[in-house]
Specification:
CATH topology: Rossmann fold
Oligomer: single chain
Number of strands: 10
Organism: Goodfellowiella coeruleoviolacea
CATH superfamily: Alpha/Beta hydrolase fold, catalytic domain
Protein name: Esterase, PHB depolymerase family
Keywords: Hydrolase, Signal
GO molecular function, one term: hydrolase activity
Signal peptide: 1-35
Order of helices and strands: HHEEEHHEHEHEHHEHEEEH
Helix content: 25-40%
Length: 310
């Protein structure tokens, strides 16, 4: 997860990023022991930024398994996200496949800032991740109609980017402590955007939605559903970003800013849902007095349930 201005003091940036490990180390319990193992895959296709790919295929998978891409935080890695979250254990239980990308640039953050990353087939990290998906679809007989993405912090920002630029690939996403698509865009080559990180980049729903629509001009197909999570005490990617994400994705679906339902799944959680005709297109969970790290177990299961895999 991004921290200080990388262009002013890279050593300081990475130093602060190291605290980000706490974001997901406590995010969920490790996967249970299994004979299946995490395997690195090479030569998986077009990979302009040199990402690494790790793959978890349970011993028992569905005949046409779903695919979940699980994207790590800054300073992290695919194997670290595998060890620190429940997605692999849930894959054992429900028979889907998990892809764990690893960022390779300084700070191990994903590119959610460049013009290339924010355009369909534009290049950079998103192209490499989509290549991983295509590799699994071809080699593992996976279902192209059940491809999902989730992530924390930098991974949550990448979740927004992938759903915005590749609506033809992903059917839904779950973003834990992220920012809207395009919010972190920069023009000076930096990967850090202080205005966005501090929750000061405020746009109308139409403006946010237009950024998504401009990422893939001419696309007229279905849009992926989005689940959003954010802590009210987040001091890294501040809480106003949560409302800006809601603005963006409800506008993409042509929905009102007024929730179709509101409930409280557990103490300190407020969940709002947005949709019509019984379909929840956007689901947003606000976590009272929670910081950038999301310490509750069970969140991965709720994401998998939102995807329709549990």
């Amino acid at each position: 997860m991004p921290m200080r201005r990388v262009f002013t003091a890279s050593w300081r940036f990475v130093s602060v990023l190291a605290t980000a490990v706490l974001t997901v180390v406590a995010f969920l319990a490790p996967p249970s022991a299994s004979a299946a193992t995490l395997t690195e895959v090479t030569n998986f296709g077009n990979n302009p930024s040199g990402l690494r790919m790790h793959l978890y295929v349970p011993n028992t998978v569905a005949a046409r398994p779903a695919v979940v891409v699980a994207v790590h935080y800054c300073t992290g890695s695919g194997p670290a996200f595998y060890s620190g979250t429940e997605f692999a254990r849930l894959a054992d239980q429900y028979g889907f496949i998990v892809i764990y990308p690893s960022a390779t640039r300084s700070g191990s953050c994903f590119d959610v800032s460049s013009a290339q990353a924010l355009r369909h087939n534009g290049g950079s990290d998103p192209v490499g991740i989509v290549s991983m998906v295509n590799h699994v679809l071809q080699r593992n007989n996976a279902d192209p109609n059940r491809v999902y993405v989730t992530g924390a912090s930098s991974g949550a920002m990448m979740t927004n980017v992938l759903l915005g630029a590749y609506p033809d690939v992903f059917k839904a996403g779950a973003a834990f402590s992220g920012v809207p698509f395009g919010c972190f865009a920069t023009t000076d080559g930096s990967s850090w955007n202080s205005t966005c990180a501090n929750g000061q980049l405020i746009r109308t729903p139409q403006q946010w939605g237009d950024l998504v629509r401009a990422a893939y001009p001419g696309y007229s197909g279905a849009r992926p559903r989005m689940q959003l999570w954010h802590g009210t005490a987040d001091n890294t990617l501040r809480y106003p970003n949560f409302q800006e994400e809601i603005k963006q994705w409800t506008n993409v679906f042509g929905l009102s800013q007024t929730p179709s339902s509101t409930d409280y799944p557990q103490s300190g959680w407020t969940r709002t849902r947005y949709g019509s005709g019984g379909t929840v297109a956007v689901e947003a969970i606000s976590l009272q007095n929670v910081g950038h790290n999301l310490p509750m177990s069970g969140m991965a299961l709720r994401a998998i349930q939102f995807f329709g895999l549990a």
